[in-house]
Amino acid sequence: MNNRIPNYKSQFSKIVKLMILALFIGLWEAPCATSTKAQAGESSIDTGSRKTRVTITNNLEGSNFTIHCKSKDDDMGTHVIAPQENYSWEFKVNFWHTTLFFCGVSWRDGSLVYDFYKASRDLNRCLYYCNWYVKRDAVYGLNEVGDPDIVLRWSSKVVMAMSCAAVVVVARLSWREFVPPVAASVRVGCAVWPDWWRRLGVAAAPNSFDG
């Protein structure tokens, strides 16, 4: 009987260590999102370690844009960004360099979905500061030295709405057969434009993607 006690203690100790490690990894990778208004008069807390910051600035000259960003583990919600303001978040790239954030962006005349941060691509192009500018002709991604090396052209909202409707039909038939990253990107893109969902008569569709 006495011989089993050390074994139980050893197993409990291992479980505690794994829980602490999981908590540490979660805190390490958790993003912190802010907008221009939220940042006014505030300063970031210095954690003593270097983080990457992604900033998306509105240069649409008189128009707002709507943005909804996600990672595998975090949904940062939908935000409306006014002209000359920005939306940004900071995070630590994970140990395996697989960190990825994708966003749906929409304004009056267009929309798009894209990976606004992808570690395998961006560790060598914008190590700590990844800046994007939303303009009328396109969305521009700047590298570490400030040169626009990524240009994203707008897609028609009508085309996107039709694509979302098609996804709803297929999702109800066989959602799990979709490639997860593609499905997730389309899901975020569709959720950004609820007015188009209502016009198509599928207002509840984004909530049904619980595959």
From TrEMBL:
Q: Would the keyword Cell cycle turn up in this protein's UniProt record?
A: no
Provide an example Pfam family for this protein.
Self-incomp_S1
| Chief subcellular location | secreted
Q: Name one GO cellular component term.
A: extracellular region
Q: Which GO terms describe its biological process?
A: rejection of self pollen
Keywords attached to this entry = Secreted, Self-incompatibility, Signal
What protein does this entry describe? S-protein homolog
Q: Does the keyword Signal apply?
A: yes
Kindly list the places in or outside the cell where this protein is found, as annotated in its UniProt entry: Secreted
- Per the record, the domain of life is Eukaryota
Which InterPro entries is this protein grouped with?
Self-incomp_S1
Q: Which organism was this protein described from?
A: Citrus x changshan-huyou
| Similarity field | Belongs to the plant self-incompatibility (S1) protein family.
